[in-house]
Amino acid sequence: MNIREFINVCWLSVLLISCGKEDIYNPMRASVLHNGVLLSCVDSSNNDLLLNEDFIKQIKIYGLLSKKEIPFEIKEIEHNEIKRRYISFNAELPDEKSMHFNGGNEARGTSTINLNIDNHNLTLLFSFKYSCSNSENFGGSIITIEEITYGKEKIMRQESHLFNSDIFFCLEKNDKDFTLK
Asked: Which of 9, 18, 86, 126 would disulfide-bridge 38, Cβ 3.0–4.6 Å?
């Protein structure tokens, strides 16, 4: 191989490497993350479906931005004197490139997960708000789930849907599908 062929191979390598960088997922960074999710599942009679180990074994959570499975655990939590089991996971953060800044120290972005549960594939959209008290100080930033959307149904971040800093909601299984409860 002569020097000209070597240079051509180097240029081709650089081009191939730079082409793939657009697909790299870079989650939005913040010093405080409020992306915790607690999800309960009940049937139409309000029976806890997460008491069934076979039901739990079928659960898969997949992040569309990272293209990776999201780990989860089952937690038993008592809230408002009601003890219930929850799927506990961290929602995938929005990609840095997709954040929409308002010209100040705030931005909004979204991420999407697929929740495979009981032979159903549910798509959940998470809307996030990012704020930074001082853009030169990395210690003053926070990113928070503000809303969860499933189909036409939405859960807004409000006190009645919070446990510590995690947002919680319930999916109710009916005859054909799941609905937000």
From this structure: 86
Dist CA 27 CA 160 (whole Å): 28
Distance CA 55, CA 130 (A): 35
Query: Per-block average pLDDT, block size 10, for the chain (181 residues)?
Result: 55 50 81 88 92 94 96 88 89 93 87 93 94 70 90 80 75 86 79
Per-residue three-class SS string for 130-147: EEECCCCCHHHEEEEEEE
CB 74 within 8 A of CB 86: yes
Helix (H), strand (E) at residue 157: none
Report how far apart, in Å, the C-alpha atoms of 18 and of each of 5, 11, 22, 66 are: 20, 11, 8, 19
pLDDT in tens, 88-140: 999 999 999 989 988 778 899 999 999 999 889 999 999 999 988 765 655 67
Q: What is the dihedral of CA 99, 101, 106, 110, to 10 degrees?
A: -20
Is the Cβ–Cβ distance between 31 and 140 less than 8 Å? Answer: yes
Nearest to 27 by CA among 156, 130, 168, 154: 130
pTM above 0.90, yes or no: no
